[in-house]
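Slide 14.
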Amino acid sequence: MRDVGRNRLSYSPSLTDARMNAMMDSWGRPIQTGPEHLVVHPHAALIGERLRRKRIGSGLTQAETVAAVENPRGGNYSTGLLSRMERGWANSPLYAYIHFAEALDLGPGRALGPESGEDVPSDAELTLLEALRGAEISPHDALARLLGEAG
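Slide 15: predicted structure.
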């Protein structure tokens, strides 16, 4: 317990760390927790990762991305919300995910759909693509050069 102004505050979480760590999703997999004991759901983390990869692949910062998306309640979303969404820690309404997906030219079906058949580039692949774009070399030309040198 600690004194804050004239009030005494005590912190007693509704779920202990042991109980939080023992929480399971509907498939029996443990649910991770993030900062402030926000629950990370596997599907929210998957969707957030898709948004993050698309944003980075487009060469956008979080600030640039949120500036392009209007919140239906007025103004823009915060970069903090986008950061939490990308890490799967947000408890955002479905329309927020759809707004960000559309702003990133990622169809809602692709952003929210199943992971089967998904070919998401790794961070190393994104770095390589970024370097090729900077050197103004198309991926096709890069492969032709590599195969020409190897053959």
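Speaker note: The longest helix spans residues 42-57.
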